[in-house]
């Protein structure tokens, strides 16, 4: 099959998607429940992956989730997600969440994370996706760093598979 034409990062990116925090989003410590923020990142990353690949996608891995600061009641959360790089059927999407005080305009960095999605064909088999054209210097830096993280992920995956094999034999 001919290679699919590459697409720009901006073609699939989500920039500052707004979510207003309400009381039902809080945990017992009266800060925003982290699982809700992670779930929203997963859902929005899926949109980025499906825009880029034009296929159904599934989450294969999530790594380097860092909660950098708590979000609080009445904050406005701003979700930004973009494709860092694609390989065969897999894609890495970077997520960044900020909390905005909408009265003052002050923002705080709340979370960073990386999601790996895999595109599937109609038989649920991984299918190749378009390459990525980084739009600028920041996108080029993310493109390079994504390869380093992928090497780490695949190495861990291979090591765990070997341990499982050894246990079976
Ligand atoms: C993700 C999944 C489709 C991969 O299937 P698989 O049989 O392992 O397929 P392959 O080994 O051919 O790998 C396909 C791609 O996924 C990547 N991949 C698979 N597991 C991975 C992991 N843990 N971390 C990073 N990449 C992974 C491979 O590197 C490969 O990428 P490439 O095509 O770009 O080289 C399969 O493991 C799966 O269905 N997992 C469950 C997904 C799910 O239910 N998610 C939650 C709900 S959406």
UniProtKB/TrEMBL annotation:
Q: Does the keyword Repeat apply?
A: no
User: Is the keyword Hydrolase in the record?
Assistant: yes
Recorded hits in PROSITE patterns, A to Z, give: HOTDOG_ACOT
Q: What CDD domains does the record point to? A: BFIT_BACH (cd03442)
Which keywords does this Swiss-Prot/TrEMBL entry list? Hydrolase
Q: Name one GO biological process term.
A: acyl-CoA metabolic process
Q: Which residues form the HotDog ACOT-type domain?
A: 11-123
Protein name in the entry = HotDog ACOT-type domain-containing protein
């Amino acid at each position: 099959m001919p290679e699919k034409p590459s697409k720009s990062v901006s073609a699939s990116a989500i920039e500052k998607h707004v979510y207003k925090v309400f009381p039902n989003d809080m945990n017992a410590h009266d800060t925003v429940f982290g699982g809700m923020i992670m779930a929203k990142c997963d859902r929005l990353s899926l949109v980025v992956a499906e825009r880029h690949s034009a296929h159904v996608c599934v989450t294969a891995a999530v790594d380097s989730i860092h909660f950098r600061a708590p979000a609080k009641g009445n904050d406005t959360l701003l979700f930004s997600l973009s494709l860092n790089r694609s390989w065969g059927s897999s894609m890495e999407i970077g997520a960044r969440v900020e909390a905005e005080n909408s009265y003052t305009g002050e923002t705080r960095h709340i979370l960073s994370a990386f999601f790996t999605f895999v595109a599937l064909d109609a038989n649920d088999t991984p299918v190749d996706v378009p390459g990525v054209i980084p739009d600028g210097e920041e996108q080029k830096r993310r493109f390079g760093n994504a390869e380093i993280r992928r090497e780490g992920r695949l190495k861990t995956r291979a090591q765990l598979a070997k341990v499982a094999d050894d246990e079976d034999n």
